[in-house]
Amino acid sequence: MRPTTEDMANIPLPYKIFLLWVEPVATLAGAYYAWFKPSTYLEWTHLPSSPGILGLPTSTHVVLRQLGNLYLAFALNEAIVLRATNDLKVWRSLLIGLLIADFGHLYSCYPLGLKMYYDLANWNAMAYGNYLFVYCGAVTRICFLLGVGMGGPKKAKSKVKKSVRLALEDAPPVTPQQMNKTPAQSTRRKKNRSS
């Protein structure tokens, strides 16, 4: 069954703006710095341990290019896949993966110290991207996955037909004699009595 445009219309504008535009563009900025300005990337991440005038070791350069490629994949997956479908199951599946990546990204910053997670006064541009922007992305994904702003959680449809449920709820208690009868016998006697 092909998804309808109604599904996409049900996604609130703030989610669309952040997930289709803001976050992919910001993530491309991270890819740019990892690829084309690796020394700056390392200095902004942690100045005391950056290579400085000695230049980047080849292995560090390779790893930063790989990181830039992962940022690119993250941005493209989010921007292209979410634009390609209106299916909320696909949106939720992708956002669960990105939410896991958010927590992985935050964990990767742990060697910089626990204080860096909340010390806004000492953050630079890289720290704002590593922490605040990731916090915003994670909160946005959590809200989307919980259905915040999307008309509330949808109730699962009951598999029991309403008429059967009402009949069971309104039925008088069963006597031991009635328990011994098969449903067919019970139905025939009711029909005979009403005739």
From TrEMBL:
Q: Mind listing the UniProt keywords for this protein, alphabetically? A: Membrane, Transmembrane, Transmembrane helix
- Annotated TM spans: 17-36, 90-108, 128-152
InterPro entries for this protein:
DUF7704
Bias category Polar residues: which stretches?
Answer: 176-186
- Domain DUF7704, chain residue ranges per copy: 10-148
First and last residue of the signal peptide = none
Q: Where is this region: Disordered?
A: 170-195
The protein's name in its UniProt record: DUF7704 domain-containing protein
